[in-house]
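Hi R.,

Here's the input for the zinc ion complex you asked about:
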Amino acid sequence: MRHLARFIAKAIAFLSPLLRQGGGTSAPGLALLKLDPKAVPRMAAGLSDGRIVISATNGKTSTTRILSNITTKAQISSVSNAAGANLKSGIATALLKKSSSQKLGVFEVDEGVLPEIVAEIGADTIILMNLFRDQLDRYGELETIRESWKSMIDKLPASTNLLINADDPSLVFASLCHPNLIFFGLGETDYALESIPHAADSSQCPRCNNQLQYSQVTISHMGNWQCIQCGLSRPDLDFEATEIELRGVENIKFKILSRTGEEPIEAKLPGLHNVYNVLAAFAAAKQLDIQTETARIAIASVNAAFGRTETIQLKDKKLTLLLAKNPAGANSNLETLLLHPERIHLSVLLNDRIADGRDVSWIWDVDYEKIFHKIESLHVGGERAYDLALRFMYGGYDPEKITVKDKISDLIDCLLTETPPDSSIFVLPSYTAMLDLRAELVSRGLTHEFWKEGL
Ligand SMILES: [Zn+2]
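And here is the predicted structure with zinc ion in place:
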Protein backbone atom coordinates (compact mmCIF):
# COMPACT_ATOMS: atom_id res chain seq x y z
CA MET A 1 0.00 0.00 0.00
CA ARG A 2 2.84 2.36 0.96
CA HIS A 3 4.60 1.77 -2.33
CA LEU A 4 1.41 2.25 -4.25
CA ALA A 5 0.77 5.56 -2.44
CA ARG A 6 4.23 6.75 -3.37
CA PHE A 7 3.87 5.59 -6.92
CA ILE A 8 0.61 7.48 -7.40
CA ALA A 9 2.00 10.61 -5.76
CA LYS A 10 5.12 10.45 -7.92
CA ALA A 11 2.98 10.11 -11.01
CA ILE A 12 1.17 13.28 -9.96
CA ALA A 13 4.52 14.96 -9.31
CA PHE A 14 5.48 14.15 -12.88
CA LEU A 15 2.20 15.24 -14.39
CA SER A 16 1.27 18.33 -12.41
CA PRO A 17 3.86 20.70 -13.90
CA LEU A 18 2.50 19.70 -17.29
CA LEU A 19 -1.01 20.38 -16.06
CA ARG A 20 0.11 23.74 -14.72
CA GLN A 21 -1.00 22.90 -11.20
CA GLY A 22 1.32 25.32 -9.45
CA GLY A 23 4.41 23.63 -10.82
CA GLY A 24 3.72 20.45 -8.89
CA THR A 25 4.96 22.05 -5.67
CA SER A 26 2.13 20.84 -3.41
CA ALA A 27 -0.30 18.59 -5.32
CA PRO A 28 1.78 15.37 -5.20
CA GLY A 29 2.34 15.74 -1.44
CA LEU A 30 -1.33 16.40 -0.89
CA ALA A 31 -2.21 13.18 -2.73
CA LEU A 32 0.43 11.23 -0.85
CA LEU A 33 -0.84 12.46 2.54
CA LYS A 34 -4.38 11.41 1.64
CA LEU A 35 -3.18 7.92 0.79
CA ASP A 36 -0.56 7.64 3.51
CA PRO A 37 -0.92 10.18 6.37
CA LYS A 38 2.28 8.97 8.08
CA ALA A 39 4.44 9.48 5.00
CA VAL A 40 6.26 12.64 6.20
CA PRO A 41 7.87 11.23 9.39
CA ARG A 42 8.94 8.09 7.56
CA MET A 43 10.46 9.90 4.59
CA ALA A 44 12.10 12.55 6.81
CA ALA A 45 13.81 9.80 8.82
CA GLY A 46 16.03 9.21 5.80
CA LEU A 47 17.59 12.66 6.19
CA SER A 48 20.56 11.46 8.19
CA ASP A 49 22.61 14.69 7.87
CA GLY A 50 19.91 16.75 9.55
CA ARG A 51 16.53 18.41 9.27
CA ILE A 52 16.56 22.19 9.38
CA VAL A 53 13.35 24.21 9.47
CA ILE A 54 13.05 27.95 9.02
CA SER A 55 10.00 29.90 10.05
CA ALA A 56 9.04 33.58 10.13
CA THR A 57 6.37 35.94 8.99
CA ASN A 58 8.84 37.52 6.57
CA GLY A 59 12.04 36.13 5.07
CA LYS A 60 11.63 32.37 5.35
CA THR A 61 11.77 31.75 1.59
CA SER A 62 14.85 33.93 1.13
CA THR A 63 16.68 32.45 4.13
CA THR A 64 15.93 28.89 3.00
CA ARG A 65 17.25 29.73 -0.40
CA ILE A 66 20.44 31.33 0.92
CA LEU A 67 21.12 28.36 3.20
CA SER A 68 20.45 25.88 0.37
CA ASN A 69 22.94 27.76 -1.78
CA ILE A 70 25.54 27.50 0.97
CA THR A 71 25.01 23.76 1.48
CA THR A 72 25.21 23.16 -2.27
CA LYS A 73 28.48 25.09 -2.43
CA ALA A 74 29.76 23.00 0.50
CA GLN A 75 28.85 19.88 -1.51
CA ILE A 76 26.26 18.77 0.98
CA SER A 77 23.40 17.40 -1.01
CA SER A 78 20.20 18.85 0.44
CA VAL A 79 16.51 18.84 -0.33
CA SER A 80 14.25 21.91 0.04
CA ASN A 81 10.61 22.65 -0.55
CA ALA A 82 9.74 24.93 -3.45
CA ALA A 83 9.42 28.65 -2.69
CA GLY A 84 6.21 29.31 -0.80
CA ALA A 85 5.08 25.64 -0.72
CA ASN A 86 5.55 25.71 3.03
CA LEU A 87 2.61 23.71 4.36
CA LYS A 88 2.81 19.96 5.04
CA SER A 89 1.84 19.15 1.45
CA GLY A 90 4.79 21.18 0.08
CA ILE A 91 7.22 19.42 2.39
CA ALA A 92 5.75 16.01 1.52
CA THR A 93 6.21 16.89 -2.17
CA ALA A 94 9.85 17.81 -1.61
CA LEU A 95 10.50 14.57 0.30
CA LEU A 96 8.82 12.60 -2.44
CA LYS A 97 11.06 14.09 -5.08
CA LYS A 98 14.25 13.73 -3.03
CA SER A 99 17.03 11.56 -4.36
CA SER A 100 18.76 8.94 -2.22
CA SER A 101 21.92 11.06 -2.05
CA GLN A 102 20.11 13.99 -0.41
CA LYS A 103 20.68 13.51 3.30
CA LEU A 104 19.99 17.03 4.57
CA GLY A 105 16.61 18.76 4.62
CA VAL A 106 16.28 22.56 4.58
CA PHE A 107 12.63 23.53 4.76
CA GLU A 108 10.74 26.79 5.01
CA VAL A 109 7.69 26.26 7.17
CA ASP A 110 4.56 28.35 7.51
CA GLU A 111 4.39 29.81 11.02
CA GLY A 112 0.91 28.36 11.65
CA VAL A 113 1.95 24.74 11.05
CA LEU A 114 5.47 24.92 12.49
CA PRO A 115 4.84 22.90 15.69
CA GLU A 116 3.22 20.07 13.72
CA ILE A 117 6.00 19.95 11.12
CA VAL A 118 8.76 20.12 13.74
CA ALA A 119 7.20 17.13 15.53
CA GLU A 120 6.64 15.14 12.33
CA ILE A 121 10.02 15.54 10.72
CA GLY A 122 11.98 15.61 14.01
CA ALA A 123 13.74 18.88 13.24
CA ASP A 124 17.19 19.08 14.79
CA THR A 125 17.78 22.74 13.91
CA ILE A 126 15.06 25.38 14.04
CA ILE A 127 15.58 28.94 12.86
CA LEU A 128 13.05 31.48 14.08
CA MET A 129 13.33 34.83 12.33
CA ASN A 130 10.43 37.13 13.30
CA LEU A 131 6.71 37.33 13.93
CA PHE A 132 4.79 40.24 12.44
CA ARG A 133 1.11 40.85 12.01
CA ASP A 134 0.11 38.98 8.86
CA GLN A 135 -3.01 37.34 7.55
CA LEU A 136 -4.81 37.58 10.86
CA ASP A 137 -7.98 36.14 9.44
CA ARG A 138 -6.12 32.94 8.70
CA TYR A 139 -4.71 32.18 12.10
CA GLY A 140 -6.27 34.56 14.58
CA GLU A 141 -4.18 36.71 16.80
CA LEU A 142 -0.43 36.81 16.59
CA GLU A 143 -0.56 35.82 20.23
CA THR A 144 -1.90 32.37 19.28
CA ILE A 145 1.13 31.69 17.12
CA ARG A 146 3.51 32.98 19.77
CA GLU A 147 1.96 30.67 22.33
CA SER A 148 2.01 27.67 20.01
CA TRP A 149 5.70 28.33 19.28
CA LYS A 150 6.45 28.63 22.97
CA SER A 151 4.78 25.34 23.86
CA MET A 152 6.58 23.70 20.90
CA ILE A 153 9.91 24.98 22.25
CA ASP A 154 9.09 23.76 25.78
CA LYS A 155 8.74 20.23 24.41
CA LEU A 156 11.90 20.17 22.28
CA PRO A 157 14.70 17.75 23.16
CA ALA A 158 17.71 19.57 24.65
CA SER A 159 19.80 18.58 21.64
CA THR A 160 17.73 20.67 19.18
CA ASN A 161 19.68 23.69 17.95
CA LEU A 162 17.50 26.74 18.25
CA LEU A 163 18.67 29.76 16.24
CA ILE A 164 16.77 32.82 17.38
CA ASN A 165 16.60 36.38 16.10
CA ALA A 166 17.46 38.14 19.36
CA ASP A 167 16.12 41.44 18.00
CA ASP A 168 12.56 40.10 18.21
CA PRO A 169 11.58 40.22 21.92
CA SER A 170 8.79 37.67 21.73
CA LEU A 171 11.05 35.03 20.17
CA VAL A 172 13.62 35.51 22.91
CA PHE A 173 10.99 35.17 25.63
CA ALA A 174 9.51 32.06 24.00
CA SER A 175 12.89 30.34 23.78
CA LEU A 176 14.60 31.27 27.05
CA CYS A 177 14.02 27.92 28.77
CA HIS A 178 15.71 25.97 25.97
CA PRO A 179 19.27 24.91 26.82
CA ASN A 180 20.68 25.01 23.30
CA LEU A 181 20.28 28.56 21.99
CA ILE A 182 22.14 30.55 19.37
CA PHE A 183 21.25 34.23 19.08
CA PHE A 184 21.74 36.46 16.07
CA GLY A 185 20.95 40.14 15.60
CA LEU A 186 22.09 43.49 14.33
CA GLY A 187 24.81 45.61 15.91
CA GLU A 188 24.66 49.38 15.88
CA THR A 189 23.74 50.65 12.44
CA ASP A 190 23.20 54.01 10.71
CA TYR A 191 20.11 52.57 9.05
CA ALA A 192 18.15 52.22 12.25
CA LEU A 193 14.74 53.88 12.40
CA GLU A 194 14.24 56.98 14.51
CA SER A 195 11.44 55.35 16.44
CA ILE A 196 9.10 52.37 16.35
CA PRO A 197 6.85 52.72 13.29
CA HIS A 198 3.16 52.82 14.10
CA ALA A 199 2.84 49.49 12.31
CA ALA A 200 4.96 47.84 14.99
CA ASP A 201 3.26 44.71 16.13
CA SER A 202 4.51 44.36 19.63
CA SER A 203 6.57 46.80 21.61
CA GLN A 204 5.38 45.50 24.96
CA CYS A 205 7.52 43.30 27.14
CA PRO A 206 6.48 39.70 26.43
CA ARG A 207 7.06 38.82 30.09
CA CYS A 208 5.50 41.69 32.08
CA ASN A 209 3.67 43.73 29.42
CA ASN A 210 5.52 46.93 30.30
CA GLN A 211 6.50 49.23 27.40
CA LEU A 212 9.91 48.16 26.04
CA GLN A 213 12.81 50.61 25.72
CA TYR A 214 14.91 50.55 22.57
CA SER A 215 18.43 51.81 22.02
CA GLN A 216 17.94 50.92 18.35
CA VAL A 217 14.93 50.02 16.19
CA THR A 218 15.66 48.16 12.96
CA ILE A 219 12.40 46.86 11.44
CA SER A 220 8.97 47.15 13.05
CA HIS A 221 9.34 46.10 16.73
CA MET A 222 12.79 44.56 16.23
CA GLY A 223 16.03 46.04 17.52
CA ASN A 224 18.10 46.36 20.66
CA TRP A 225 15.46 46.27 23.38
CA GLN A 226 15.10 46.02 27.12
CA CYS A 227 12.38 46.09 29.74
CA ILE A 228 13.25 48.33 32.67
CA GLN A 229 10.49 46.82 34.79
CA CYS A 230 11.39 43.12 34.80
CA GLY A 231 14.91 43.28 33.42
CA LEU A 232 14.31 41.13 30.33
CA SER A 233 16.58 42.40 27.55
CA ARG A 234 18.11 41.41 24.26
CA PRO A 235 20.60 38.61 25.00
CA ASP A 236 24.25 38.70 23.96
CA LEU A 237 24.62 37.89 20.28
CA ASP A 238 26.47 34.83 19.02
CA PHE A 239 26.31 36.19 15.47
CA GLU A 240 26.18 39.96 15.09
CA ALA A 241 25.98 41.96 11.85
CA THR A 242 28.16 45.07 12.11
CA GLU A 243 29.36 47.85 9.80
CA ILE A 244 26.25 47.44 7.68
CA GLU A 245 26.21 49.23 4.33
CA LEU A 246 23.01 49.20 2.30
CA ARG A 247 24.02 49.90 -1.25
CA GLY A 248 20.94 51.20 -3.00
CA VAL A 249 18.23 48.76 -3.91
CA GLU A 250 20.63 46.06 -4.98
CA ASN A 251 23.36 45.14 -2.55
CA ILE A 252 24.28 44.79 1.09
CA LYS A 253 27.70 44.66 2.66
CA PHE A 254 28.45 44.00 6.31
CA LYS A 255 30.59 42.02 8.74
CA ILE A 256 29.54 39.08 10.84
CA LEU A 257 31.05 39.06 14.29
CA SER A 258 31.12 35.70 16.04
CA ARG A 259 33.29 33.72 18.44
CA THR A 260 35.49 32.65 15.54
CA GLY A 261 36.20 36.22 14.38
CA GLU A 262 34.93 38.82 12.00
CA GLU A 263 33.89 37.93 8.47
CA PRO A 264 33.14 40.39 5.63
CA ILE A 265 29.97 39.52 3.73
CA GLU A 266 28.44 40.83 0.52
CA ALA A 267 25.13 39.87 -1.03
CA LYS A 268 23.14 40.92 -4.09
CA LEU A 269 20.06 41.41 -1.99
CA PRO A 270 18.65 44.71 -0.73
CA GLY A 271 17.70 46.06 2.65
CA LEU A 272 18.12 45.44 6.37
CA HIS A 273 15.65 42.55 6.22
CA ASN A 274 18.11 40.69 4.01
CA VAL A 275 20.92 41.34 6.49
CA TYR A 276 18.81 39.31 8.94
CA ASN A 277 18.19 36.59 6.32
CA VAL A 278 21.87 36.24 5.42
CA LEU A 279 22.91 36.33 9.07
CA ALA A 280 20.50 33.52 9.97
CA ALA A 281 21.66 31.38 7.04
CA PHE A 282 25.31 31.98 7.94
CA ALA A 283 24.70 31.03 11.59
CA ALA A 284 22.99 27.82 10.45
CA ALA A 285 25.86 27.03 8.08
CA LYS A 286 28.29 27.30 10.99
CA GLN A 287 26.22 24.70 12.89
CA LEU A 288 26.83 22.39 9.91
CA ASP A 289 30.59 23.07 10.20
CA ILE A 290 30.67 24.65 6.77
CA GLN A 291 33.78 26.71 6.18
CA THR A 292 33.36 30.46 6.33
CA GLU A 293 34.93 31.02 2.94
CA THR A 294 32.51 28.58 1.33
CA ALA A 295 29.55 30.32 2.98
CA ARG A 296 30.82 33.72 1.93
CA ILE A 297 31.19 32.73 -1.73
CA ALA A 298 27.76 31.10 -1.76
CA ILE A 299 26.12 34.17 -0.18
CA ALA A 300 27.75 36.46 -2.75
CA SER A 301 26.33 34.37 -5.59
CA VAL A 302 22.74 34.03 -4.38
CA ASN A 303 19.94 35.76 -6.24
CA ALA A 304 16.78 36.87 -4.55
CA ALA A 305 13.99 34.32 -4.29
CA PHE A 306 11.58 34.85 -7.15
CA GLY A 307 9.26 37.78 -6.74
CA ARG A 308 10.60 38.62 -3.28
CA THR A 309 13.18 40.86 -4.84
CA GLU A 310 13.56 40.25 -8.48
CA THR A 311 14.56 42.45 -11.36
CA ILE A 312 13.04 41.75 -14.75
CA GLN A 313 13.96 43.49 -17.97
CA LEU A 314 10.73 44.96 -19.32
CA LYS A 315 11.79 45.81 -22.89
CA ASP A 316 13.82 49.02 -22.43
CA LYS A 317 12.89 49.36 -18.74
CA LYS A 318 13.94 47.66 -15.56
CA LEU A 319 11.16 46.36 -13.35
CA THR A 320 12.01 45.41 -9.77
CA LEU A 321 9.55 43.37 -7.74
CA LEU A 322 9.64 43.78 -3.97
CA LEU A 323 7.09 41.53 -2.28
CA ALA A 324 5.09 43.50 0.29
CA LYS A 325 2.49 41.34 1.99
CA ASN A 326 2.24 42.98 5.41
CA PRO A 327 3.15 46.30 7.11
CA ALA A 328 6.58 45.17 8.34
CA GLY A 329 7.64 43.90 4.91
CA ALA A 330 6.18 46.89 3.07
CA ASN A 331 7.82 49.41 5.40
CA SER A 332 11.14 47.64 5.04
CA ASN A 333 10.85 47.88 1.26
CA LEU A 334 10.01 51.58 1.46
CA GLU A 335 13.22 52.13 3.46
CA THR A 336 15.07 50.34 0.66
CA LEU A 337 13.42 52.54 -2.01
CA LEU A 338 14.55 55.64 -0.11
CA LEU A 339 18.11 54.53 -0.90
CA HIS A 340 17.51 54.74 -4.65
CA PRO A 341 19.38 57.78 -5.97
CA GLU A 342 16.67 58.90 -8.40
CA ARG A 343 12.95 59.47 -8.30
CA ILE A 344 11.02 56.27 -8.89
CA HIS A 345 8.14 54.95 -10.94
CA LEU A 346 6.11 53.12 -8.32
CA SER A 347 3.36 50.52 -8.72
CA VAL A 348 1.58 49.09 -5.69
CA LEU A 349 -0.59 46.00 -6.22
CA LEU A 350 -3.10 44.59 -3.76
CA ASN A 351 -5.27 41.48 -3.87
CA ASP A 352 -7.41 40.10 -1.06
CA ARG A 353 -7.41 36.37 -1.81
CA ILE A 354 -6.91 33.83 0.97
CA ALA A 355 -3.13 33.69 0.48
CA ASP A 356 -2.95 37.49 0.80
CA GLY A 357 -5.28 37.67 3.78
CA ARG A 358 -8.84 38.82 3.14
CA ASP A 359 -8.50 41.85 5.35
CA VAL A 360 -6.59 44.60 3.51
CA SER A 361 -6.76 47.16 6.32
CA TRP A 362 -3.05 46.59 6.93
CA ILE A 363 -2.23 49.06 4.14
CA TRP A 364 -3.19 51.81 6.61
CA ASP A 365 -0.23 50.71 8.76
CA VAL A 366 2.25 51.17 5.92
CA ASP A 367 4.08 54.51 5.97
CA TYR A 368 3.79 55.25 2.25
CA GLU A 369 4.01 58.99 3.06
CA LYS A 370 7.73 58.51 3.68
CA ILE A 371 8.42 58.08 -0.03
CA PHE A 372 5.91 60.52 -1.56
CA HIS A 373 8.74 62.94 -2.37
CA LYS A 374 10.56 60.19 -4.32
CA ILE A 375 7.63 59.23 -6.54
CA GLU A 376 7.82 60.24 -10.19
CA SER A 377 4.73 58.29 -11.23
CA LEU A 378 2.28 56.18 -9.24
CA HIS A 379 0.18 53.26 -10.43
CA VAL A 380 -2.06 51.22 -8.16
CA GLY A 381 -3.38 47.85 -9.27
CA GLY A 382 -4.85 44.49 -8.30
CA GLU A 383 -8.34 43.61 -7.16
CA ARG A 384 -8.23 46.17 -4.34
CA ALA A 385 -6.64 48.96 -6.38
CA TYR A 386 -9.22 51.47 -5.21
CA ASP A 387 -8.40 50.80 -1.55
CA LEU A 388 -4.81 51.69 -2.39
CA ALA A 389 -5.86 54.82 -4.25
CA LEU A 390 -7.86 55.87 -1.20
CA ARG A 391 -4.92 55.11 1.09
CA PHE A 392 -2.58 57.33 -0.94
CA MET A 393 -5.20 60.05 -1.26
CA TYR A 394 -5.76 60.16 2.50
CA GLY A 395 -2.00 60.32 2.98
CA GLY A 396 -2.02 63.55 1.00
CA TYR A 397 -0.99 62.27 -2.42
CA ASP A 398 -2.61 64.23 -5.26
CA PRO A 399 -5.44 61.96 -6.52
CA GLU A 400 -5.05 63.42 -10.03
CA LYS A 401 -1.61 61.82 -10.15
CA ILE A 402 -2.74 58.31 -9.19
CA THR A 403 -3.32 55.92 -12.09
CA VAL A 404 -5.66 53.07 -11.15
CA LYS A 405 -5.31 49.83 -13.14
CA ASP A 406 -7.17 46.94 -11.58
CA LYS A 407 -6.25 44.58 -14.44
CA ILE A 408 -2.62 43.44 -14.43
CA SER A 409 -2.40 43.34 -18.23
CA ASP A 410 -3.58 46.97 -18.45
CA LEU A 411 -1.04 47.95 -15.85
CA ILE A 412 1.81 46.37 -17.80
CA ASP A 413 0.65 48.05 -21.04
CA CYS A 414 0.54 51.33 -19.20
CA LEU A 415 4.02 50.92 -17.71
CA LEU A 416 5.42 49.93 -21.10
CA THR A 417 3.97 52.95 -22.91
CA GLU A 418 3.95 55.69 -20.32
CA THR A 419 7.28 55.41 -18.52
CA PRO A 420 10.29 56.78 -20.39
CA PRO A 421 12.98 54.44 -21.79
CA ASP A 422 15.61 53.27 -19.29
CA SER A 423 13.28 53.93 -16.36
CA SER A 424 13.52 51.98 -13.13
CA ILE A 425 10.07 50.77 -12.17
CA PHE A 426 9.46 49.41 -8.68
CA VAL A 427 6.48 47.20 -7.94
CA LEU A 428 5.28 46.39 -4.43
CA PRO A 429 2.77 43.53 -4.85
CA SER A 430 0.86 41.45 -2.32
CA TYR A 431 1.51 37.70 -2.65
CA THR A 432 -1.08 36.66 -5.25
CA ALA A 433 -0.69 40.00 -7.07
CA MET A 434 2.98 39.09 -7.46
CA LEU A 435 2.01 35.69 -8.88
CA ASP A 436 -0.48 37.36 -11.28
CA LEU A 437 2.09 39.88 -12.43
CA ARG A 438 4.70 37.20 -13.03
CA ALA A 439 2.17 35.03 -14.87
CA GLU A 440 1.36 37.94 -17.18
CA LEU A 441 5.06 38.65 -17.77
CA VAL A 442 5.64 34.94 -18.49
CA SER A 443 2.78 34.86 -21.00
CA ARG A 444 4.39 37.80 -22.78
CA GLY A 445 7.73 36.00 -22.84
CA LEU A 446 9.37 38.60 -20.60
CA THR A 447 10.46 36.21 -17.86
CA HIS A 448 10.50 32.50 -17.04
CA GLU A 449 8.14 30.52 -14.87
CA PHE A 450 9.26 30.25 -11.30
CA TRP A 451 9.09 26.49 -11.06
CA LYS A 452 11.70 26.22 -13.80
CA GLU A 453 14.08 28.07 -11.54
CA GLY A 454 14.66 25.12 -9.21
CA LEU A 455 16.10 25.38 -5.74
ZN1 LIG B 1 9.23 43.15 31.42
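One thing worth noting: The radius of gyration is 21 Å.

Cheers,
M.
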